[in-house]
C-alpha cells in the first residue's frame, strides 16, 4: 500500500493537480475526463475523505481538512468530469506544441488504404465501392468500403437495406495465404420469414470471391437464444434455407449489459483490500469476467480455424455489428497476422476494426454525460484478449503490457481526438482532424517505452498464426489492469525493463565496436539477438 | 528378497506408450528391479525410463484382450501403456504395484545407483553443522555448538550437533527437551547479522491441560533476548488448534511463564489437510472439460492457494519481527518438523541474500529440512494420486517450494537459481536416484542407512558445471536487501510449472526463456570484445606515444 503524503490540491479546468509539500514537490495530475466516479465517505475526526476512481482503475484517496471544501470539490469534479457536449472535451483545448502542418501530417500517420493494399486489396476479386460516399448507405460505416467486385451497386444497396442500420457485409480482413476473407456486418432483418435476394447475392458474392471454397461460415457471435429473440423484433439471423452454402455458427458472447456488470465485479475484486484467497477466487468466479474473455478469444480462434485451416471465408456479425463483431474480427486478425502484433500494427487494427467501423467510443466509454446503459467495456475485452495471448506467447508481440494500458487510458481520457464520437461521420462533422490531435504519432514517438525485449521479427512465434490454448486454466486475472495498487508492488523488479536495459547497452557496445573496427563474428548464441538489435528502433 | 520374485513378466513386446507432448511409441516393455522401460529400438524415438518409486498409482482397463495401464506419477505426469494380452497386462500391473510400494528403504534405487559421472565435490560433505557454525562464530560469540544429541537420544529428529545459547549447558537442554514435543528443544535457526536478532525453532511445549511449566525451557529461550528486549513466539497453529493440543499433552507457552514473549497464532494447516488440498488441486488441473466457472470454483475449493498465502504471510511475519521490529523469534507448531520449517526457511529466503544463491539454497534445504528432521520419506511416500488410506504423506516441502517460486516470480532478478531448479528439487524429493531425500531424520539417514557412504548425494550431481548451467537464472544480480513479497491474492499465482506442466506445452515459454538467455549472453560477449579492444587501444597508445614525440 502506498504511503500517504500531505500537499495542496488544485483544480484547473482540465486537471486535478496534487502538489506534495515535500522538497521534491512531486506533482500528480489527473485528467477530469479520466475520472469515473467521485465518492465522499462520511467525514471523520481527521478530515473529510474524497475518493476519486478513474476509468483506468487508478484510485486516489484524499483527506481534506474542511468538509465544505470537500463538498465543493466533489461538486466541481462531478461537473467537470461529465461534460454534456463534445466541445467541452479536453481534446478540443489540448494544445501540444505542434504546428498546423504537423497536425495534419499526424492525422495521416495511419493509412487504411495502405493497410488493405498490404493485404493485397484491391485485387481482381475485391475492390473499393463508392456506394457509401457521403455515408449514403450507412452512416456508421467508413465512407470507403471493400466489397466483392462481383457485387453490383444494386446488390450493395439492397443488402444494406436488409441489414440492421444499413451495416451491410463488407471486407474486414483478407487472408492472402488462403484467399479467405473475414467480412463483417450487422444482423439481417429477417424476422421470422423476410428475405432479401440482394443480401443473399451479397453473401454468394463473398463466397465466390474465395474461388477455392464451396461454402462459407456465418459466425453469429451472440448466444443463439439472444439471436432467436431478435427475430420477434424483425431482426435475427440468416435462414440457412435461403442462403446457399452457408454454415451458421453461434459463439455465445454476452451482450454489453452483462459485460458492464461483469467488469464492475472484477474491478471490485481487484480493488479488495487484503482479501482472503477464498474471497478473491470466489469474486473472480462470481464476476464471470474470465469466462467472457474466453468467449471472445474462442470466437477469434474459430474464425482463424475457418480462414487459415479450412480456407473458408467468414461473415461475422452480432446485433449491430459494432461491439462483439469488432472484438471477434480483431482478435482473429491478431491471431492470423503477425503485423497486428507489432506496435504500428495494433494501432492500424484499432483504427480499422474499431475507429473506422463505427465502434461507439463516446457511448461505450461515457465520454459525455449520457445513457449509462450504453456504457460497456467492449474494447477492454479486446485489449485483455491480447494481454492473455502475450502471456501465452511471450515472444510474439512487439509491444508490452504498458502499451495496452496506455491505449486503454487514451481511449477513456479524451486528450486526443481519435476516439471521440461514435462514427467516422460524427468525427468528420466535429472536424476532429482540424480541432484536435492524433494520439498515434505520439505513441509512436514514445515506442521505446512500449517495447517487449523478447520480441524478434524473425522469431518463430512472431511469424505465422498463433494457436492459443483456451482451456480455462490458461486465463489469468489481469493484475496490471485491475489491481493498479498491486501492479506497483509486484513490479519492483521487471525482467522486461532490465532486459531492455541490457539490450540498450548491447546496442551502445555494438556502436562502439563498429566505431573501432568490426562487429564480432556471429556466434550461435549471439546470432539471433544480433539480427534483433538491428531491428530495434532508435 | 529378490526383485525377480516380484517381476512376474519381465518383458512384453508390442506395447504402445502414450505420454504428454510426445508422439505415441510402440516397443518393448521391460521391468527391472527399479525401472519401467519402454524401448522401440529405433534411434529416433525417446525411450521411457521410469523409476518405480516415481509411480504414485496405477489403473487397469480392458477392452477385449487389449489391456491398458494408466500410470500416474509422483511428478504429476500421467502415461498410458496399451498392452496386448490380458495375462501380460495383469502381470505387469501387479509387478509395478509391488515394485512401486516397497517398504524397505534399503531396497530403494539410490542404494543400487552407480553414477555415470565422476563425483568431484561430494555433496554429502558440503554442508555440515560445523561449517555453518564457523560462519556464525565470525559474527557473534553468543552461541555454542552442543553435542548433547550426539547419539540422538535427547531428540531423535535433531542432528547430532545443534546451535544453542552459549550460557545454556547441556543439562538445561536435556530438561528443556523433555518439555518439548519430540524432544525438539529450542535451537538456533537463523542469526540476522544486520541487528543480531535470531530465529529459533522448536516443538510445541508439553504444557498439557494442567499448565505444566519448565524453568529450563524458559531460561533457554530467555537467554536469546537482549536485556530489556521482548521476543515473539510464532505458533503456526490457530489458538483453537493449540488449545486442543493441550488435551493430548501439548500446548503453548503461557504468558505468565514467558512474560518477555508475545505469542502470535497463525493458521497453517496440518499435513492431512494439505495432502487433501494437493489431491483436489491436481484433480482440477487435470480435468480439461472444466468450464471457467467450474475451474475457478475447484481451484478455490482445493484451498491450495490459501495455504500458499498463509505460509508466506507467516514467514513474512517472522521476518518482520526480526528485521523491522528488531526482536528475536521462536517458531513452532505441533511437532516442529513441518509448518515450522516452512516458516523458518522462507523467512531466511526473505532476509538472507545468501539463501537466494544456488549453493545457499542447498545449504538452507540441508539445514532447515534435512538436518532439521523433516520426515521426507513419510511425507513424500505418496503424491497427488494417492487413493489409499492417507498415512502421513503431505506436500509440505512442495508448498515451501511453491512459496519460493512465488517470491522468485516477484523478484525475478534476486535469485541465482531459476524455476527449473525448484522443480528438480520437487521431483527428487518424491523419487530419485540420489540418497539425499531418503529417510526421515539425520539419525536415520546418516547413521542407520549410512546414506553418505552407500548413496550419491543430489548435490554432487547438481553442482557439476554441466548441470548447474541449467539451473542458473540469467537475470540474477546479487541483491543484498531484504525482499518483501506481496501476499495479496492478486499477486499470487498458480505454479503452472508444476501443476500444469503435463497439461499444456511450455514450448512458447521455453522459447522466451532462451531468448532472454541469448540477449544476456550476447551482451556479455560484446562486453568482452569491447573490453579487449579498449585494452588493445590503450596498449597501442602507450606504445605509439614515444614514436610520436620527436
TrEMBL record, chain A:
Per the record, the similarity remark reads: Belongs to the protein-tyrosine phosphatase family. Non-receptor class myotubularin subfamily.
Q: Identify this protein by name.
A: Myotubularin phosphatase domain-containing protein
Entry keyword Transit peptide: no
Q: Name one GO cellular component term.
A: cytoplasm
**Record keywords:** Lipid metabolism
Ranges for region Disordered = 493-538
The protein's superkingdom reads Eukaryota
Give me the residues that bind substrate, please. Answer: 255-256, 318-324
Q: What is the lineage of its organism?
A: Eukaryota, Metazoa, Chordata, Craniata, Vertebrata
Automatic annotation (TrEMBL), chain B:
**Coiled coil regions, renumbered to chain:** none
Where's the Myotubularin phosphatase domain?
123-499
Q: Assign the protein's first listed, main location to one coarse class.
A: membrane
Q: Which SUPFAM superfamilies match?
A: (Phosphotyrosine protein) phosphatases II, PH domain-like
Cellular component terms per the entry's GO annotation: cytosol; endoplasmic reticulum; perinuclear region of cytoplasm; ruffle membrane
On the tree of life, the source organism's domain of life is Eukaryota
Q: Which UniProt keywords apply?
A: Acetylation, Cell membrane, Cell projection, Coiled coil, Cytoplasm, Endoplasmic reticulum, Membrane
Q: What Pfam families has UniProt attached to this entry?
A: Myotub-related (PF06602), PH-GRAM_MTMR6-like (PF21098)
Keyword Signal assigned to the entry: answer is no
The entry's localization annotation reads:
Cell projection, Ruffle membrane; Cytoplasm, Perinuclear region; Endoplasmic reticulum
Q: Which InterPro entries match?
A: Myotubularin, Myotubularin-like_Pase_dom, PH-GRAM_MTMR6-9, PH-like_dom_sf, Prot-tyrosine_phosphatase-like
Q: Which GO terms describe its biological process?
A: negative regulation of autophagy; phosphatidylinositol dephosphorylation
Q: Give this protein's Gene Ontology molecular function annotations.
A: protein phosphatase binding
Q: How does the record classify its membrane topology? A: Peripheral membrane protein
UniProt lists the family membership as follows: Belongs to the protein-tyrosine phosphatase family. Non-receptor class myotubularin subfamily.
The identity of this protein, by name, is Myotubularin-related protein 9
Source organism of this protein record: Pygocentrus nattereri
What lineage does UniProt assign to this protein's organism?
A: Eukaryota, Metazoa, Chordata, Craniata, Vertebrata
